[in-house]
């Protein structure tokens, strides 16, 4: 991927302070990626972000956008090429939602027809009905709706780059998660280059294609994919910043389709008790999975239950909470812990059995991830 | 009151735009017209008194319809002209000292305004009558000095109270600073600036009566005529008319605040 944004030796000194807020930062951001700047408060991540569109003017260093040095370019013209979303949203309270969203197209002098069409498109894009919301005022919207408008407004003139400063930080946890997911889905379509600031490592892991973990002075402690950051933290600072639960967080990134599934003894429910016992005898598992004629899992049955009288349809327990290949390992683990047999059934789109996830599968996956990350780390030194 | 942030009109307006209950327009008109109707009633009372009361010759000479009408008009001119001049001078100055590069000037300018207003109004009027010519012009200049601070301060406060993130997002989208001022900051500061204009104008109505001392005319001359001749009915009639004028100015500017306040606030 070609570089979209290049920061070279970028530095910000605030008058009256000895240490620079951002100290000779070098960072390259590839086209179409979401890069998260994450770090403890006061590390200079927001200052870094705001220097890219020169809301804060750098003291020294170079900013390149699409290969072009924009460090001295007209800042107003530069900013019209960069979408800007901040935590406080900053909608214009005296203007309607429609007028708010079309700010940049109007600055660029688009025709009224083009502006109207774009407004409809944008409102649909962020899931707001134009007829209902176009003529409302910001104070009539909820926090989540306002941030949707903020995102639509930043996307209005289809800029190649978006800067987002803790955009979901002021929302309640439920709205935040919904907007994060919506935004990731939106990004699948729009493929913007996004620089995103947060102090929340979990948000960084969820949202980022690449994470830059910053320490004081906006120095890069590690710049890598979330998987690698979690599996192979560069140093103690990164390890401490990730905090506990790194292994669980990593399971949130891997999907069931990425791991080798376990195989459980199965038997068609129509073949009767003897077949089920035979299947059980040939494996080390304590129970057998009964399938219907289209290989859809029906019941878990233990050996001692097979000894009991009665129809097979009523023995053991029903199979519940199946997962699909696209499910994350974290969710699979949750379903697994909740099941009676310590395993969760993986099915395809039609409900047919693909395999199972149990503790051994999870542990093997964690092992593989760790090895992969180390190998990748060795190949990519220096890691930027 | 001087900042207009606790203004009763602001409250009622918010309710109207937010809820828009049926018939709210009529309610609004009733509120807009109620005060003028009451003041008109008071004026009718004054006219009836002047026409039919048992007045002596001196009182008759001082209280003629023509004289009262001229005095009221001159009074309004004093206040109107000085307020307009202050708007033309103080609003741009307020904008100027609120620009980022001039922030350090703000306390100096507000301090000067404070000094101008803390001098007793009588002193200001007489001082400017001596400096300039006594009469209408000198009084207008004095009233300008006196009304300067409320409008200046409210312009500054009106611009400062704007959510800084609104300005930041406007700048971040590539609006020039002039455009941000024109399309974002000034509209958002309008309610506070107008509250300052209202305060200044109402104070102006009272202060303008002192202009009589320097021969500026207005209702003050009628009051002083009454004082010099010891005629209480004359003093009372002129005072009532001054009060009516002050209430009317306050009301009209209150309505203007409502009408000119941007929607969505």
Which CATH class of the largest domain in chain A? Answer: Alpha Beta
Strand order of the largest sheet of chain A: 6-7-8-3-9-10
Order of helices and strands of chain B: HHHHHHHHHHH
Under CATH, the homologous superfamily of chain B reads MetI-like
Describe the largest sheet of chain B: none
Strand tally of chain B, please? Answer: 0
Number of helices of chain B: 11
Major sheet of chain A, described briefly? 6 strands, mixed
Structure commentary:
- The complex is a heterodimer of chains A (384) and B (265).
- Chain A has two domains: 3-249, Rossmann fold (3-Layer(aba) Sandwich), CATH 3.40.50.300; 258-364, CBS-domain (Roll).
- In chain A, the strands form four sheets. A six-stranded mixed β-sheet of chain A has the order 6-7-8-3-9-10, sandwiched between helices. In chain A, strands 2-1-4-5 form a four-stranded antiparallel β-sheet, with helices on one face. In chain A, strands 11-12-13-14 form a four-stranded mixed β-sheet.
- In chain A, strand 4 (60-65) and strand 5 (68-69) form a beta hairpin.
- Helices cover 38% and strands 23% of the residues of chain A.
- Chain A has helices at 45-52, 75-79, 97-101, 103-107, 112-125, 130-133, 143-155, 173-190, 201-207, 226-231, 236-242, 246-251, 272-281, 303-307, 329-338, 359-379; strands spanning 3-12, 22-30, 34-38, 60-65, 68-69, 82-86, 161-165, 193-198, 210-215, 219-224, 266-268, 287-291, 297-302, 317-318, 343-347, 353-358.
- By secondary structure, chain A is an alpha/beta fold.
- Chain A contains 16 helices and 16 strands.
- By secondary structure, chain B is an all-alpha fold.
- Chain B has one domain: MetI-like (MetI-like fold, Orthogonal Bundle).
- Chain B has helices spanning 8-19, 24-52, 57-62, 65-98, 106-118, 121-131, 136-160, 164-172, 177-208, 219-228, 232-260.
- In chain B, helix 4 packs antiparallel against helix 9 (177-208).
- The longest helix of chain B is centred in the N-terminal third of the chain and has 34 residues, at 65-98.
- Chain B is flat, with a radius of gyration of 21 Å.
- The two termini of chain B are 20 Å apart.
- Mean pLDDT of chain B is 85; it is low at 1-21.
- The A-B interface holds A 53, 55, 75-80, 84, 86, 88-96, 103-104, 107, 137-139, 150, 153-154, 163 and B 163, 165-176, 179, 184, 187-188, 262-265.
């Amino acid at each position: 991927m070609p570089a979209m944004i290049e920061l070279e030796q970028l530095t910000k000194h605030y008058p009256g302070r000895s240490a620079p807020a951002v100290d000779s930062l070098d960072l390259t951001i590839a086209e179409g990626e979401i890069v998260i700047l994450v770090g403890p408060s006061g590390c200079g991540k927001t200052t870094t972000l705001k220097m890219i569109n020169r809301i804060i003017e750098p003291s020294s260093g170079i900013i390149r956008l699409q290969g072009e040095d924009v460090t001295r370019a007209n800042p107003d013209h530069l900013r019209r090429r960069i979408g800007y979303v901040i935590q406080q949203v900053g909608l214009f309270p005296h203007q309607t939602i429609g007028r708010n969203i079309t700010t940049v197209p109007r600055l660029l002098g688009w025709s009224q027809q083009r502006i109207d069409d774009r407004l409809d498109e944008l409102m649909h894009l962020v899931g707001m009905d134009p007829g209902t919301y176009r003529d409302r005022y910001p104070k009539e919207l909820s926090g989540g709706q306002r941030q949707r408008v903020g995102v639509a407004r930043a996307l209005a003139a289809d800029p190649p780059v978006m800067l987002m400063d803790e955009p979901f930080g002021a929302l309640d946890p439920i709205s935040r998660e919904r907007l994060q997911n919506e935004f990731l889905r939106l990004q699948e379509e729009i493929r913007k280059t996004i620089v995103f600031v947060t102090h929340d490592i979990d948000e960084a892991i969820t949202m980022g294609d690449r994470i830059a973990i910053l320490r004081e002075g906006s120095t890069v402690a590690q710049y890598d994919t979330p998987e690698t950051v979690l599996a192979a933290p560069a140093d103690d600072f990164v390890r401490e910043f990730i905090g506990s639960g790194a292994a669980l967080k990593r399971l949130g990134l891997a999907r069931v389709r990425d791991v080798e599934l376990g195989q459980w003894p199965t038997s068609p429910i129509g073949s009767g008790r003897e077949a089920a016992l035979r299947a059980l005898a040939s494996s080390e598992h304590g129970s057998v999975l009964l399938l219907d004629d289209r290989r859809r899992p029906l019941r878990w049955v233990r050996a001692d239950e097979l000894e009991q009288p009665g129809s097979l349809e009523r023995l053991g327990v029903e199979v519940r909470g199946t997962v699909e290949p696209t499910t994350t390992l974290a969710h699979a683990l949750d379903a697994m812990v909740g099941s009676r047999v310590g395993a969760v059934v993986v099915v395809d789109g039609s409900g047919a059995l693909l395999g199972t996830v149990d503790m051994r599968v999870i542990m093997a996956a964690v092992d593989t991830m760790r090895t992969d990350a180390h190998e990748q780390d060795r190949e990519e030194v220096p890691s930027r | 009151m001087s900042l207009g942030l606790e203004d009763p009109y602001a409250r009622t307006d918010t309710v109207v735009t937010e809820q828009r209950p049926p018939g709210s327009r009529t309610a609004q008109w009733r509120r807009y017209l109620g005060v003028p109707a009451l003041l008109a009633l008071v004026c009718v009372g004054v006219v009836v008194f002047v026409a039919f009361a048992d007045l002596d010759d001196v009182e008759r000479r001082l209280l003629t319809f023509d004289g009262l009408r001229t005095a009221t008009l001159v009074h309004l001119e004093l206040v109107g002209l000085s307020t307009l001049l202050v708007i033309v001078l103080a609003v741009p100055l307020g904008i100027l000292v609120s620009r980022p590069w001039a922030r350090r000037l703000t306390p100096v300018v507000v301090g000067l305004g404070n000094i101008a207003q803390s001098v007793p109004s009588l002193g200001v009027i007489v001082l400017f009558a001596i400096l300039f010519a006594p009469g209408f012009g000198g009084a207008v200049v004095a009233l300008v000095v006196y009304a300067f601070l409320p409008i200046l301060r409210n312009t500054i406060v009106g611009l400062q109270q704007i959510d800084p993130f609104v300005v930041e997002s406007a700048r971040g989208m590539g609006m020039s600073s002039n455009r941000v001022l024109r399309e974002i900051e000034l509209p958002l500061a309008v309610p506070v600036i107008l509250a300052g204009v209202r305060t200044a104008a109402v104070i102006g109505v009272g202060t303008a009566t002192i202009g009589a001392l320097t021969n500026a005319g207005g209702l003050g001359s009628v009051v002083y005529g009454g004082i010099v001749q010891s005629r209480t009915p004359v003093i009372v009639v002129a005072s009532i008319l001054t009060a009516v004028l002050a209430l009317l100015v306050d009301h009209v500017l209150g309505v203007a605040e409502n009408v000119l306040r941007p929607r969505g606030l």
